[in-house]
Specification:
Length: 319
């Protein structure tokens, strides 16, 4: 965790923050929280954002590394007094270092894919005194759209209204297939089923933006319940399709060995095997097994926009 913070301080924090500041899209979301529920916040916000930026408001000081602070543009006096070099310990504050460390490990697939990242709330200590870099903090504040407290959003920097119409409902809607997953499982499935995830993300965005923002609290809740009901319906539909495919494969393929041999023949001989089948006619049992193995393959369903949701649902029920 300390190495992560030191790496961002040395190399990436300005680059990543600039990427958010200059982006023209409405789907790069920055959230700052005073709570320890980073896992839930990540699982909730990822399905509506292209990139999720997270940070903490406060907490205990965590030492990152001892640095020579030569970049006077990111610190204020007394650290850069007179334009000279100041020596100090760089760290950051967060409510629970242990939980943050586990979050970094569990969300590693999302971090590597650029879907999420964590910006430490840096502090610098010199001569035993912990000081906040106001210049650095002002720069940070521009990159956070909302403060999150008890799943309530507080506008932090005049975020575009579209972001609020996406983030607020995703924090309120009932999504047990997301809440029931651990963060590592969620991260692995999101990256592993990325195409299906992107399709589901577009569905959520369209659904939330279709909700009239002039509705009262009761009407908004009813609209969210309707979206949640539609999602449950698609999960049941996908589950039924997966069961149907499993039954068809069990009936049409007379045995595992036949299926393997048939698939191997088709892969090796290709068109030559098709010519043989033409001679055998439609009763050729080998070709029937090959065709069944292809058309009833669950992998084809992974292209469906609801496979991602179904995969999360399955994983949540097997934990």
């Amino acid at each position: 965790m300390g190495n992560y913070a030191a790496y961002l301080w040395d190399h990436r924090s300005h680059e990543l923050k600039d990427a958010k500041r200059f982006t023209r899209g409405h789907h790069y979301v920055g959230l700052c929280t005073d709570a320890t529920g980073m896992d839930d916040l990540t699982k909730r916000a990822t399905p509506v954002s292209d990139t999720l930026l997270l940070s903490h408001e406060g907490g205990q000081f965590v030492r990152a590394s001892t640095l020579v602070l030569q970049d006077c543009s990111v610190v204020e006096p007394p650290f850069s007094a007179g334009g000279g070099i100041a020596y100090g310990t760089v760290g950051f504050v967060c409510p629970s270092p242990g939980r943050l460390s586990r979050w970094i490990h569990a969300s590693e697939p999302l971090l590597k894919a650029g879907l999420a990242w964590y910006l430490p709330n840096y502090r610098t200590v010199t001569d035993g005194t912990q000081r906040r870099s106001e210049a650095y903090e002002r720069a940070n504040n521009r990159h956070f759209d909302y403060l999150v407290r008890d799943r309530r959003l507080i506008d932090a920097s005049g975020a575009h209204p579209i972001k609020g119409r996406l983030v607020r409902p995703i924090l309120e809607i009932d999504l047990p297939f997301i809440d029931g997953n651990d963060l590592r499982g969620f991260s692995d499935i999101t990256i592993g089923e990325f195409d299906s995830y992107r399709k589901f993300r577009e569905y959520l965005r369209q659904s939330f933006l279709a909700i009239d923002d002039g509705l009262n609290a009761v009407q908004s809740e009813q609209a969210l319940q309707k979206v949640a009901s539609e999602i449950r319906g698609h999960i049941y539909e996908m589950r039924g399709q997966m069961k149907t495919v499993a039954r068809r494969r069990a009936v049409t393929v007379t045995g595992a060995s036949l299926g393997v041999v048939s698939a191997s023949l088709a892969a090796v001989y290709g068109p030559a095997l098709e010519e043989v089948i033409k001679v055998l006619g439609p009763s050729g049992k080998i070709w029937g097994a090959v065709e069944a193995n292809s058309t009833n393959n669950p992998r084809k369903l992974r292209e469906d926009s609801w496979y991602y949701v179904w995969a999360l649902h399955q994983h949540a029920h097997h934990l």
